[in-house]
Amino acid sequence: MKSSYFEDAAATWDNEPRRVAMTKAVGETILREARPTKDMDMLDYGCGTGLLSLYLLPHVHSVTGADSSAGMLQMLQTKLKEADIQNLKILPLDLEQDRLPDNRYHLVVTNMTLHHVAATDRVLRAFHALLLPGGMLCIADLDTEPGIFHAPEAAASVRHHGFDRAELTSQLSQIGFRDIRDVTAHTIRRPIESGEQRDFPVFLITANRR
Ligand SMILES: C[S@@+](CC[C@H](N)C(=O)[O-])C[C@H]1O[C@@H](n2cnc3c(N)ncnc32)[C@H](O)[C@@H]1O
Fold first, then answer.
1. 52 within ligand 1 shell (Cβ under 6 A)
2. Domain ranges of the chain
3. Does any ligand 1 atom lie closer than 6 A to the CB of residue 72?
4. Going by CATH, does the domain composed of 5-209 fall within 3.40.50.150?
5. CA of 26, closest atom in ligand 1
6. Are 6 and 71 in contact (CB under 8 A)?
7. Looking at the whole model, is its pTM more than 0.85?
8. pLDDT for residue 3
């Protein structure tokens, strides 16, 4: 059964400045590394309340914000209504279980979501299938960490303690992605359970679908 963590966290998700700062840093790195253009349709998988979707929206033609949490999508829906945004569509989606949507995209981005996904290979293959030929995948997530990043209330939703960049690169290559590159997009400084401040690097991997 899916964890209810994100349903409970949705209403106050944006109140944490650390999250907003991280999304901005990841967004800036995507602009630099993927160079999106105004004719591109983008999918943000695991979009949450839309922090990254809304940051990148002015740089692309359209955004589809997909997430498995109704609570997170409701928060995004409220923002879209308040700002009268027409070119960001919401899509309830869980690629671990759902069939592939019909639309195809020039750009697929996903921020801090893959470590909540058990069926990583299935979802990465779905990203490949959802991209148009020549399209680009951007994955931002934690480097491997010793299982201390998440607060106890989030623990049940965590499927991976970050990722080894080389292993993820090899997996993407086997799926058929090419020109796979990684950079460090940001470092999250946050207190762990003991109260001590620790640094957690966040990578951005970019990969092309030929
Ligand atoms: C850590 S949050 C990140 C949200 C957003 N990308 C951000 O940076 O603020 C992870 C998001 O992934 C979503 N998620 C978790 N598992 C998912 C799945 N299997 N399919 C789609 N979304 C999922 C959660 O509902 C949540 O919104």
1. yes
2. 5-209
3. yes
4. yes
5. 8
6. yes
7. yes
8. 60
